[in-house]
Design a protein that fits this description.
This protein has about 120 residues and is mainly α. It contains 6 helices and no strands.
Length: about 120
C-alpha cells in the first residue's frame, strides 16, 4: 500500500476555494447590512435632506471638536480630515449615532442636524 503525498497544487486549490468562500460570505453580509441600513427611516430622511455646512460646522465645534480638534485634525479622537476617503456616508451616520466606538458617546442629532454635520465633514 503506497501513501499518497499531498501535492502543493492540491493545497493551493483548497486554500483558493476557502478564500473564495470567505470572500463570498463577507460580500453577502455586507450587502445585507447595506440594504438594512438604507431601509432605516432615519438614514433615508438624512440622505433626502440638503445639509447646511455652516450649521454643521457649529454643531461640530460644540459636539465634536473637543475630541477631534477644531479643524478635525484629531486629538483624543482620530483625525477626520478627508474622512470620506475612509468612511461612506452610511458609515459616518452609523459611527455618529451608534455609540459603538468608545470613548465616542452615542449622539442622536435630528435628521437635519445629521445632514448639516455630514455637509461640514465633507469640507475637512
Amino acid at each position: 500500500m503506497t501513501e499518497q503525498l499531498i501535492q502543493p497544487k492540491d493545497i493551493i486549490q483548497q486554500l483558493t476555494l476557502i478564500f473564495v468562500a470567505i470572500i463570498f460570505v463577507v460580500i453577502v453580509v455586507m450587502v445585507g447590512l447595506y440594504l438594512h441600513q438604507i431601509s432605516d427611516p432615519y438614514i433615508n430622511q438624512v440622505l433626502s435632506l440638503t445639509g447646511n455646512m455652516e450649521r454643521g460646522q457649529a454643531m461640530f465645534e460644540i459636539n465634536c471638536a473637543g475630541c477631534h480638534g477644531l479643524q478635525g485634525n484629531g486629538m483624543v479622537g482620530p483625525s477626520l480630515r478627508h474622512i470620506k476617503k475612509h468612511k461612506s456616508t452610511l458609515g459616518l451616520i452609523r459611527q455618529v449615532t451608534s455609540g459603538q466606538t468608545p470613548p465616542m458617546p452615542k449622539f442622536q442629532p435630528n435628521p437635519q442636524e445629521m445632514s448639516d454635520l455630514l455637509s461640514y465633514l465633507e469640507t475637512l
